[in-house]
Description:
Elements: E1 5-7, H1 9-16, H2 22-34, E2 39-42, H3 43-54, H4 61-74, E3 77-78, H5 84-95, H6 99-110, E4 115-117, E5 126-127, E6 130-133
Parallel strand pairs: 1-2, 1-4, 2-3, 4-6
Antiparallel strand pairs: 5-6
Amino acid sequence: xxxxxxxxxxxxxxxxxxxxxxxxxxxxxxxxxxxxxxxxxxxxxxxxxxxxxxxxxxxxxxxxxxxxxxxxxxxxxxxxxxxxxxxxxxxxxxxxxxxxxxxxxxxxxxxxxxxxxxxxxxxxxxxxxxxxxxxxxxxxxx
Length: 142
């Protein structure tokens, strides 16, 4: 069975941050490869991306909005459901992960994602059918 992936906010931010050096190059590679795979983006990751890059004028708002629109054209969007908050709270406590990371994980799990590409959280953790994978380390993913 093919894996379904999602990208955490940090991957999206590095993909546009030319000052991030090797992380930028790797993030661009990951995003480009994910276009051809079964990859979805979460509403939260896109919202956090917009917030992070427009904070302190790191990226003009119009440019950041256009980037979000580009990604929405390339990737399906998945959103929280009624029970997602409870699942995230429970997952945060049970697996020792930060709450906002747990929210992305919960949405991912509810939408059939098997791999969460992130440098945050606990790489190698498998919870709710989702494996956390750091694409800046050797995790065998795009």
